[in-house]
Amino acid sequence: MKKILTTCIYCGCGCGLYLNEDRGLLTGAYPSVKHPVSKGGLCVKGWNCHEFVNKMDRLTHPLIKENGKFRKATWSEAIELIAKKFKAISSESGPDSLAFLSSAKTTNEENYLMMKLARAVFKTNNVDHCARLCHASTVAGLAATFGSGAMTNSINEFEEADCFLITGSDTTSQHPLIGSRIINSVIDRGAKLLIVDPRKIELSKYATVHAQQKNGTDVAWINGMMHVIISEGLEDRAYIEERTEGFEELKELVKDYTPEYVEQITTIPKNKLIEAARIYATTKKAMLVYSMGITQHTTGVDNVKSLANLAMLTGHVGFLSTGVNPLRGQNNVQGACDLGALANVYSGYQKVTDADKREKFEKAWGVEGLPGNIGLTVTEIISALANKKVRGLYIVGENPMISDPDQNHVRECLEKGEFIVVQDLFMTETACFADVVLPGASFAEKDGTFTNTERRCERIRKVIDPPGEAKADWEILCDVARACGYKGMDYKDPSGIMEEIRVVTPIYGGMKYDRLEPHGLQWPCLDENHPGTPYLHKDKFAKGKGSFMPRPYKEPVEFPDEEFNFILSTGRVYWHWHTRTLTGRTTTLERESPVPYVEINSEDAKELSIRNRARVKVTSRRGSIELVADISDKVVKGSCFIPFHFREAAANVLTINAVDPIAKIPEYKVCAVKVEKL
Amino acid sequence: MKNEYLPYKVTIASIQKESFDTNTYKVVFDDEKTRDSFDYRQGQFAEISILGVGEAPISITSSPSRKGYLEFSIRAAGSLTNKIHEMKVGDSLYVRGPYGNSFPYEETKGKNIYFIAGGIGLPPLRSLINMTMDNRSDFGHIKILYGSKTPDELCFKQELDEWKKVENTEVWLIVDKPCDGWGCSIGVVTELWKDTDIHPKNAVAFVCGPPIMIKFVVQKLTQSGFKDKDIIMTLERYMKCGIGKCGHCNVGEKFVCVDGPVFTYEEIKKIPSREKVI
Amino acid sequence: MKLKKILQKDVEKLLGEAAKKWQTYVPSKNDEGDTLFAILPKEKDELEKALQRVNLKDDWVAISPKEIFFPQVENMFSFDKERITEEIETSKKLIFGIRPCDLKGVLFADEFFKRNLEDIYYLSRIEDRLIVTIGCNTPPRKEACFCTSANTGPFAKEGFDLELVDAGNYYLVEVGSVKGEEFINLYSAFFEDAGDDEAEKLNSIESDAKEAINVKVDFDKALEIMKGDKDLTENYKRIGERCIYCGGCVYTCPSCTCFNVFDDKLGDNGVRRRNWDTCVFRGYTREASGHNPRDEKWTRTARRYEHKLKYDYSVTGTSGCIACGRCLSSCPVNIGMSKFIEEITTNKRNM
Known about the structure:
The complex is a heterotrimer. By secondary structure, chain A is of the alpha/beta class. Chain A is 31% helix and 19% strand. Chain B folds into two domains: 8-99, Beta Barrel (Elongation Factor Tu (Ef-tu), domain 3), CATH 2.40.30; 106-234, Nucleotide-binding domain of ferredoxin-NADP reductase (FNR) module (Rossmann fold, 3-Layer(aba) Sandwich). The termini of chain B are far apart. The relative contact order of chain B is 0.14.
């Protein structure tokens, strides 16, 4: 019987929890009392995060597809086939005919190796992962304005803040242990809560102001708040003067965004906008919190830049319990970005377009000719399968069939894919399209580190052996590199990989494994004596002066019209995680949320004579799905919301694959649909 | 100590279609010893499994007076019951039990009896009905009042005809949405009060059906002068273990699986109305 | 049997001996600073190391010792095409160093699993069990422990085999059962009779320990209120709204015993397992038809409090709450039984 401290596999909170083992079975999970995030508590997903590991339908052997059917294969067969195919494709069509999708569910070390495999071994920057679908806008938007694209503060600082402006984050559902801190602050300490969200979320009932904007009009209300703040003289002059640049341009741009004009665009009553602006501007310890509701738009980067403007305008960055906090969704999406599983940067956000950085990595990796072009991103990679621009694709722990926009398009692309490798725990919807399927190890079966949303790099620890012949992803990636003749990917264990990461990644410079005991360190952590950084931009911004980047409001790509008369937004529920590969295999979680549904406003339901729990058909220009109606006043009239977890009625059949021009993030939060009674 | 959680293999001997979504499965324990030792009383239930799919409590609809087999009338309503509906004669299921209390029997001898059921509520009563039919002379007048949404949803149509023929026994049927040729009453089950006398004297009423139907029938019975203790019903509640351990069916201080499923209205009244048992 | 004593430095040796004979569970402090129950290993070097970690100081163990007898997940039986094979655990167990409130919880769960039809999985795990409690000189969960209000601590009065009380460089040892007495006789070398004045010392340690409990509520009054028909809907609604449905209060509660049953299967082989379940979840009472008698949040909140403070009391004569405070200390939104009791007995809103 063992009880081993590790880090939760679900959201970006990064709770410390114990996994219990008894005779090879995981028999439970419970919170660490001393861990700074969990503090003796967990959410329901954390309490149940052990169960999927035990499942008997785990992948246990490599599989090779022959004549449309999978057969069991040996590891050497599978790895040699991958090496042979990838080398052949690369020499026929060039390095950029290969692509690699890394995973925010795997460790930092594995993400680093994935980008190393793509870049050092196959000489392509076509490596990306699902951060593209969640916070690519943040990485781009905050890096441009502040110089660092991450949450500025720490989770425990939520316990001291006096005002929260929350937009596009259903915090209690998606980051429960942050949501709980907000609830406690608001109810027990009287902190002010401002929510700008088209939907009524759990937190709405505690809101001082809840403004329900029309989906996709975020730049307008943010500019409107700044208009109010400037016209009432509530901006922080000294801060602007001392720590920022570009204020005059901002002032000029937001001049037009009067509350009346903003109300026309967003439907937010002007008094609400003014009240929210005043409270946010005049509360000292104010935390801006946002998530997918801001980023998943064709204007995602504009949205993020506008929020950064708002925070700088009021002097709300760079202090304890005061900052801009994009909540990262996946347990290790922060880490996967940090370690360079992105098409444009190496680990530590070092640009591939920067020749000095390329030279540095060439030297470190013992290779020549690292590519300097920016690679393809997630949605571009999938689309490139169809036109054969990408002929070989290696996917680790991602399930684009369910998670990517416009499912019919994704299916078509995957079907056309010439050679696809999927490395995962289960036979996912995507793995069905693979030519080779490799069985990976779960978080309970390997060592490594995750980096949570507050930039805390913390350990995960091996509790049990992987089932059958399954192997840790890092071992598999090293096997592939070796089979391709590359000698620079031999490690004894993940701590060895971290040693290499430390050398080439300044923000992880001090993240030695023994220093990560017991509860990790927050980056930047530059060297072995650095204590880590609880909050960013203290005294000055990471890039020097913070840059105001005023952006005008632009409409989403697809607003409702006469035929497709509803705005659809997609998201998640408390009980499930993403494509339900793990939570669908967890008894309690699956029981709590067993069926796909669409939230519809009661007035619309009445007009369409739809009863609660009745089946309805939702159709967009891209496809249609059938599911159960959940009638309430959570969404406003004219809009609807569908959780995207369910393969049985995949919301992403409906969504549009239009993307932000800079971040390439798809517009999951706005598309036009119609709703019909069945 | 007996392991109450271990189920025993049974083989499906016959399948009888009862309504559009309900079949009666006659099953026989593979092991002779289990077959002989499985002693149950009218109104009890058993836990039925398909190994690897799950387990659910199902009332035993056969009469204890008829030995050697068990019958379960199962409505396709969830993943397990849907799977059972895909099964054929000769396939195996797993059964453990019997569990729960039972309908009072000895104490009702000599009395007039009302069986009042709605929809899928008749199967739990079937066991008791057949037992009284098998010992008909022990009882006074018997009325069976049975309603459902459509004629399609009425269970045990053949047996309803048989019961009708038994001396001193009446069967009253009512449906909400009749089809062509429907010769009986139209409406919900409480509307049968208009068609036939329901009299509390020396009588007990057994009520079974969806919570909302029970609620209205109980109201009617009370208005007709039935005492709370003479109104007897079975409760449905989500349950897992069947033996008072897993907690799911715990309402008030009662476990439906061990203290029930049969309760008198007198007992039901003590449970907070918030629990919506009826 | 007379009061005994054992030197603190001898406890390690005693446990070293006992570990050979029993599956010995001790509170063990790990490198990460958390104290958890662990089994002492049999192998000599491993045992030496494990003994260094034994932590009998007043430290917060996140999960109650119910997990020893009622694990979060356990196999009930495995099956293949031919047969069903049950999995029963019957090791001889020494539970050393659990807290008095936790003992109450264990005894409560024992009685529950014996009631009606017996639960073989639980009862076989407790068949051969010796419990040594340790009194709490200071509360392990300072903000949450409220045992004095319910008379469930800080020292145990009954139900233990032995109880230790920290008296400086030695523990006073009370013997609570014949099995406890046999244990002392078996390891008599480690124990000596306590002096005549030690009983008084014990009393004074106990009264200091009682003083050290910070949270005090009117438990008896709460039981009275719950017995009556005072309308607490407003409390339930407010608490139910605040709840984030993590299940932590139930998972950590020493006397909560609800479970779910589920199957896992590959081909013809499979296993039936059970895992902890909680009445605060919506799906806990949802029927196959979709009908859910406890669909509204507050009805689940009401159920939990009524079960603990009303129905457990009316059925067993003792409250299901054993005043350990774990529900509060594991709750991300600071909901807890002591606060609920304070609310209903003083009409003061605190959640």
